[in-house]
Amino acid sequence: MAILERIQAEVEGHPIVLFMKGTPQFPMCGFSSRTVQALKAAGADPASLHTINVLEEPEVRANLPRYSNWPTFPQLFIHGELIGGCDITMELYESGELARMVAETRQA
């Protein structure tokens, strides 16, 4: 179960964690790309955005859905809580809620 403990440590160790395909500079799927763009547009500092490339970490990719009970990627966590994937992130961005959530990570 060491991989689930590592995932938990990643999620709890950073205010914003995005498990994605590729990197923010080189996303490897449209959903990951849109999620990164929404986070940046909502004011997330690229330096504070902790990302894990699940394509380079097959063990994380295989076990994260079991940890989060969410089947697809990307997966966004803020303050240790699963926010969701691309669609939910985009809805939160469009409503202004994502900007508020991101701002709270800077105050914490």
Automatic annotation (TrEMBL):
Glutaredoxin domain residues? 16-83
Q: Name one Pfam family in it.
A: Glutaredoxin
Q: CDD domains attached here?
A: GRX_PICOT_like
- Name the keywords, alphabetized: 2Fe-2S, Iron, Iron-sulfur, Metal-binding, Redox-active center
What PANTHER family does this protein map onto?
Answer: GLUTAREDOXIN FAMILY MEMBER (PTHR10293), MONOTHIOL GLUTAREDOXIN-S14, CHLOROPLASTIC (PTHR10293:SF72)
Instruction: Cite the NCBIfam families for this sequence.
Output: Grx4 family monothiol glutaredoxin (TIGR00365)
Q: Identify its protein family.
A: Belongs to the glutaredoxin family. Monothiol subfamily.
Q: What is this protein called?
A: Glutaredoxin
- Gene this chain is encoded by: grxD
